[in-house]
């Protein structure tokens, strides 16, 4: 399912005008009459803000919004890639959240890179008719060397033919080979990063965790 709109609780940004597209192809069209939008280029030294009409196709920007509700140049924290224009309104796809990183030393693995790595690795599970339903991750630095830990919730269509430990070890190696060069350098050359680990959790673990978290919210 693809969401019909892109929004915050305080304001609306864009609409999905092609509801029948694949989720991976979703793009949103900015609604210029809703708020005042500005864009900060995804560059380390960028300080100049761009208006709607000045953004360029295939470039990434951080969205900044000034709203009727009182937000003033609020940095949303989302990075967007401009995919085209609908009349004069830019269309974009969501790329990743800002500062969502796995980091041990000089390595920096962002959300988009991790997602692509997991998608590539999931191909090893196809012969077992198994899909990765949900995942999460964290960096374990309690021991030397620190390492990435990835939690997978899997859906096996044939319970009698599930991925073996050997296959999961291959998945770990595939993920490491798919990560950036800085990670691989630290992992192989100086061993400052330990071996990546995949932990398979029971079905519905993420739903149970969500329900538990909600139950602890004061009412």
TrEMBL record:
<dbReference type="InterPro" id="IPR055378">
    <property type="entry name" value="GH3_C"/>
</dbReference>
<dbReference type="Pfam" id="PF23572">
    <property type="entry name" value="GH3_C"/>
</dbReference>
<protein>
    <submittedName>
        <fullName>Uncharacterized protein</fullName>
    </submittedName>
</protein>
<feature type="domain" description="GH3 middle">
    <location>
        <begin position="28"/>
        <end position="97"/>
    </location>
</feature>
<dbReference type="InterPro" id="IPR055377">
    <property type="entry name" value="GH3_M"/>
</dbReference>
<comment type="similarity">
    <text>Belongs to the IAA-amido conjugating enzyme family.</text>
</comment>
<dbReference type="Pfam" id="PF23571">
    <property type="entry name" value="GH3_M"/>
</dbReference>
<feature type="domain" description="GH3 C-terminal">
    <location>
        <begin position="113"/>
        <end position="216"/>
    </location>
</feature>
<keyword id="KW-0436">Ligase</keyword>
<dbReference type="InterPro" id="IPR004993">
    <property type="entry name" value="GH3"/>
</dbReference>
